[in-house]
Amino acid sequence: MTQTQHFDVLVVGGGHAGAEAAAAASRMGAKTVLLTNKVDDIGQMSCNPAIGGIGKSHLVAEIDALDGVMGRATDKAGIHYRILNKSKGPAVRALRVQTDRKLYREAVQEILQEHENLVIRQESVLEILTKGEKAIGCSVNSGRAYFAEAIILTAGTFLAGKIHMGDLQTPGGRVGEPASSALAESMRGMTFRVGRLKTGTPPRLKSDSINFEILEKQHSDDLAPLMSARSMREERPSQIACFITHTNTDTHKIIEDNILSSAMYSGAIEGVGPRYCPSIEDKIKRFAERDKHQIFLEPEGLESDLIYPNGISTSLPLDVQKEFVHSIRGLEKAIISQAGYAIEYDYYDPRDLNYSLETKGIRNLFFAGQINGTTGYEEAAAQGIVAGINAARLVKGRDPWEPARDSSYLGVMIDDLTHLGTKEPYRMFTSRAEYRLQLRQDNADQRLTNKGIDLGVVGSGRASLYREKMKTQRELADRLAREVIFPNSGIAKMLGLELSREFKLRDLFRRPELDVLRVADALGMDKTDAKIVSALETIETEIKYEGYINRQKVEIQKIRQSESEALPADLNYDGIEGLSSELKQKLVHFRPKSLDRASRIPGMTPAALSILLVHAKRASAE
Ligand code: FAD
């Protein structure tokens, strides 16, 4: 074995977790090496070419607040933007961006190239090298070894990956790429609890074989916000439309008739699949009463001739895939260019990790991404940035950064994973956060950028953008507080308001009928300027929800002061009024010892915690 250079931080894997981890560590000044199977595949999207969605875009905003890669790469490759939950409250509003798969990969690689302390090598890692209970490096298949002070493993779905299609099974990390069998085998000899999970992907269709003429068209939302504060709307690629179709009773019958030939139902797969991203087989079984399921036909890129049919992930044999695809409106003559498949892979129980994402069993070794039982690019990237920060801090002899769950979704996810573990692929949702009105996408930078500057992970460019945004926001807030709107004035008319007396614009902003775009118009501002709109959105939410937000702050304070309050082991949760039946079930299942533990149960709300606090206090007084 030839010894090569010594690095501060070594990252294994160039997926979403690996790219973010390597970039964060190098931004913090650590001499970092990224080792990955194929350099050209860095930033590859294994499944759908889209970033964001409910809960997920919140994670991307937090990554961006820490000057990470994902939001910037998304805007460089974004070809279709949509605001989700537009009509719902600001806490759950989210952004989903469909990207050009090739442009996304190129953007990630381009951004990594900007990182001065980062070296990228094409190497397949065979084994993590240890000395006693400490990781010191890794061996690779070219015969070399790499050494580092901290190692971050982000091997995604590649560890003992097995691809399933019907009764065909082949080893693989994703289609066309080999599984990491040697690495998985050597990891099995370590102290970690290993499980199997599975996920799946739909067949890809040839664009010119689809009859788009008869399908519903969905346009990109032109005024949707961007994913990164560093992006400019005019720098985005061209925007294109998606199309919508549905499965039907014929489709369901074909699938039902062939269900036993699906790898998922034949017993060939032992791993548990993602509940919130089910295969079409699962949907038909679980929602038998439904006679159709929606399918979004999403172009894979501006120059690609492939369509990603979102909603029909499957592991049925190819001939059945063809038959059911052809039963769908608009897809009667669709040509499958790559079959759908399921993949099973090793993951490690995240309860074997410290909050920093360093493993408990082996010092200086961090895990991030899909190998911790999560699913999705955003969840992986979010863990990557935290692992990168903490690996760099470890090298500098500093304490780890542990993002709290009341100030970030990063904290919610890491707290959930490290304390509760997961038995099925963990996906982020806003409902996992107790304090979601505080953890909005629009205020991620207010929650995290100053912290990121202190940590040294936020570069000067991102830091000055943040300061500018805060200045704009302060000036706008002052203007709203000063501006008085008189009845029948020009502005009142532009706002569409009939007023009985004069009002400060700030107070009028509380009214549900007034939104950011109308206010921007009335004040003569450019409503296509993403930065102004984003500042106004934050102000709007803080004004409209002032009462709730202040109450939530008081709740957080109260809960923080009572975290150690014990909950009786025999507490009759079923008899407690005001708790939802779902929460009651979870409380009975987990039987948390303290209020702090209860606060970490997924779906727990501040209101429910306040109820539990009363019971905890009552018990301690008895
Ligand atoms: P990955 O993106 O998998 O990256 C792992 C990286 O590690 C790769 O670059 C790989 O080359 C490298 N690597 C692995 N082993 C080694 C080694 N020994 N040496 C060097 N480099 C190595 N998510 C969803 O949310 N919804 C879905 O519907 C969905 N469907 C999916 C379907 C399929 C078929 C697959 C494969 C994945 C799917 N995913 C889905 C998961 C999604 O792709 C992952 O969540 C995400 O890519 C995880 O990012 P990661 O960085 O952890 O790992």
Q: Explain this structure to me?
A:
The structure is a single chain. This protein is an alpha+beta fold and 622 residues long. Helices cover 36% and strands 19% of the residues. It contains 20 helices and 22 strands. Strands 1, 2, 6, 7, 8, 9 and 20 form a 7-stranded mixed β-sheet that branches. Strands 14-15-16-17-13-18 form a 6-stranded antiparallel β-sheet, with no helix packed on it. Strands 11-10-19-12 form a 4-stranded antiparallel β-sheet. The longest helix has 23 residues. The protein is globular, with a radius of gyration of 25 Å. The relative contact order is 0.13. The mean pLDDT is 91. Bound molecules: flavin-adenine dinucleotide. The site of flavin-adenine dinucleotide has 38 residues, from helix 1, strand 2, strand 12 and helix 9.
- Based on helices, strands and strand pairing, what is the structural class? alpha+beta
How is the biggest beta sheet arranged?
A: 7 strands, mixed
Radius of gyration: 25 Å
Strand elements, count: 22
The gross shape turns out to be globular
The residue fraction in helices comes out at 25-40%
Separate helix tally: 20
